From TrEMBL:
Keywords: Signal. It comes from the Bacteria. The keyword Signal applies. This is Pimeloyl-ACP methyl ester carboxylesterase. PANTHER family: AB HYDROLASE-1 DOMAIN-CONTAINING PROTEIN-RELATED, ESTERASE_LIPASE_THIOESTERASE DOMAIN-CONTAINING PROTEIN. InterPro entries: AB_hydrolase_1, AB_hydrolase_fold, Sec-Metab_Biosynth_Hydrolase. Residues 1-27 form the signal peptide. The keyword Ribosomal protein does not apply. Residues 43-263 form the AB hydrolase-1 domain.
């Protein structure tokens, strides 16, 4: 695996040996949209917990400008099994090769949704979980110290059947999720966050697609949700083709550094098209 460290927004890199929310704007894609067949891979983006598909808007604009068809799935955030089945259905509807991209809890979803999907050619983990068989997002969050998410959660909302909806306290949203995003924008992100159930975050993953499908990782050195040590561990374990560490970036690296994320997605699409 190649580890690339980005110095801020600059394109200069250091090669080393290795080892949530959305912007308030128009939705760039819908979960029911089936992308048409294309010479290029279709990019399917899966947002994470406490976010929506508009969190990808900066990335989508760049991918579309380069000629890619993009589908931003509206992840239900109810359970890992049902969410993965939902995304799997979107992938099956695409007429051609797919690069499947997940942010945060969306990484758990793509890990399961891509299993057995012959048209998924690459997996891209954007500050995302990449669980092994039997692991949960909850397990991985606490694998190494550094996450401040648990202490920032608002009182859970009880649901029928014993599950609970989880939110982040709006006053704590920026320092936890998006410290490198302008405050005005993070206030909107905190207000529009979509809840995830505790069941989804604690549900054990199935057989991981990253064992058979090439993977790429990008994450921030200042991620306060998933500790950078956890990201490095998951990338190395998955045998990632490349892992990019964006210096000073928060958990929403696709919002604060959309160009870096789009470039990595395009790299994954190009390398797996050969």
């Amino acid at each position: 695996m190649k580890l690339t460290a980005y110095l801020g927004r600059a394109a200069s890199v250091v090669l080393l040996a290795l080892g949530a929310a959305g912007m308030s704007s128009m939705a760039a894609g819908t979960a029911s949209a089936a992308a048409p067949a294309s010479a290029k891979a279709t990019i399917v983006l899966v947002h994470g917990a406490l976010a929506d598909s508009s969190s990808w808007n900066g990335v989508i604009a760049r991918l579309q400008a380069d000629g890619y068809v993009v589908v931003a799935a509206a992840d239900p955030l109810r359970s890992l099994k049902s969410d993965s089945d939902y995304v799997s259905g979107i992938v099956k509807n695409v007429g051609g090769p797919v690069v499947l991209v997940g942010h945060s809890y969306g990484g758990s979803i793509i890990t399961n949704a891509a299993t057995g999907a012959d048209n998924v050619k690459a997996l891209v983990y954007v500050a995302a979980y990449a669980p092994d068989d039997g692991e949960s997002a909850f397990d991985l969050t606490g694998k190494f110290p550094g996450s401040i998410l648990p202490a920032a959660l608002a009182p859970p909302i009880a649901l029928a059947g014993g599950a609970h909806d989880l939110y982040v306290q709006q006053a704590k949203f920026r320092p936890v999720f998006a410290a490198d995003v302008p405050e005005r924008q993070t206030r909107l992100m905190g207000a529009t966050q979509r809840p995830v159930t505790d069941v989804a975050l604690k549900e054990a993953s199935g057989a991981p697609a990253w064992k058979t499908i090439p993977s790429w990782f990008v994450y921030g050195s200042a991620d306060k949700v998933i500790p950078p040590a956890v990201h490095a561990f998951m990338a190395q374990r998955a045998g990632a083709r490349e892992a990019i560490v964006v210096k000073g970036a928060s958990h929403v690296v696709m919002v604060s550094h959309p160009g870096i994320v789009a470039e990595l997605i395009e790299q994954a699409a190009a390398e797996t098209a050969k």
